[in-house]
Amino acid sequence: MHTILVTGGCGYIGSHTIVDLIENGYDVISIDNNSRSTTRLLDGAQKITGRKIINYPVDLCDVKAMQEVFRKHQIKGIIHFAAFKSVDESVEKPLAYFQNNLVSQINILRCAEEFNVPHFVFSSSCSVYGNADVIPVTEETPLKKAESPYGRTKQVGEDMIMDVAKVSSRRFILLRYFNPTGAHPSGIIGEIPFGKPSNLVPAITQFAAGKLPALKVYGNDYDTRDGSCIRDFIHVSDIAHAHTLAIGYMAKQTSGNNCEIFNLGTGNGVTVLEAIHAFEKVTGKKLDYTIADRRPGDIVAVYANNNKAQQKLNWIPKFDLNDMMKTAWNWENALGSIS
Question: Pick the catalytic residue: 129, 150, 222, 249?
């Protein structure tokens, strides 16, 4: 079995990806210092897979500590999730985002070179597109100015990898996620927001569960069909499987471009209000949301053209919006019964 290092393996997408990797025959280790996570999701991944998963509580900004992990394992692939990821927090604390997200990425790329790791997958974001002139966006869509420091760290992170790839024998894949949501169908792992949730679906489920006093829709005056922002919601298990496919794809490539980009979205644009109504339909719970001012850093509308991922990675999303809402609500109820 090939050993894959997952940075941020205790996080939302990281834990789901660990499950998918193990279910597809890979051995996995994690690095996560739990500054924005706990070991609960990793424990859940172990329960789902029946496998013990090692996590090293290392800060990726500490390159010497990270090198020690690489010396202990014969790592054949890296999937790099670990980063701060709140759009609104990044607006308030830009330097913290630049320091954490960029220094950690420099260090993990250094280790990939030093320890001759052949395959590297980078967790990027649709935020790199900014407010695109034409949607759906393809991988060739020109990138506009990032609307937040978080988005800017992803743009710089992509540029960093493309520059490294020009002088490296490693292979790199940049996966641009749209809006991951939902939870594992088992109900054992899902999203655990730290502090007030900044993403829509956990805000919906927490409000419905009585954990949040209000559910706010930030802006109803955008130039969209109902005035709210448009997003491309994609189930977290579909996102996770794309990483497994990306590792397998790189292993088969012997020539050609050593750095490729793929959009990971359903290709369907859904407004914030439509997502709320989908949750109401699936659960039968009426949500008394309120309209608030626009939120700094939010993109008006973005959704994916995912043809490239379908054709080259053989990636076909399996879960629809109703599945996303249903699994997210099941997970929220599981959290409530345990807490």
Answer: 150
pLDDT in tens, the chain (339 residues): 589 999 999 999 999 999 999 999 999 999 999 999 999 999 999 999 999 999 999 999 999 999 999 999 999 999 999 999 988 899 999 999 999 999 999 999 999 999 999 999 999 999 999 888 999 999 999 999 998 999 999 999 999 999 999 999 999 999 999 999 999 999 999 999 877 888 899 999 999 999 999 999 999 999 999 999 999 999 999 999 999 999 999 999 988 899 999 999 999 999 999 999 999 999 999 999 999 999 888 889 999 999 999 999 999 999 999 999 999 999 999 987 654
pTM for this predicted structure: 0.95
The two tokens of residue 161 are 């990898």
Q: What is d(CA 165, CA 180) in angstroms, rounded to the nearest whole number?
A: 27
For the question of residue 222 being annotated catalytic, the response is no
Using the structure block, give the residue that is written with the tokens 């290709």.
267
Q: What CATH code is assigned to 3-183+234-265+306-317?
A: 3.40.50.720
DSSP letter (8 states) at residue 309: I
3-state class (DSSP) for residue 214: coil
Q: Where are the domains of the chain?
A: 3-183+234-265+306-317
HSE-CB of 38 using CA atoms within 13 angstroms:
9
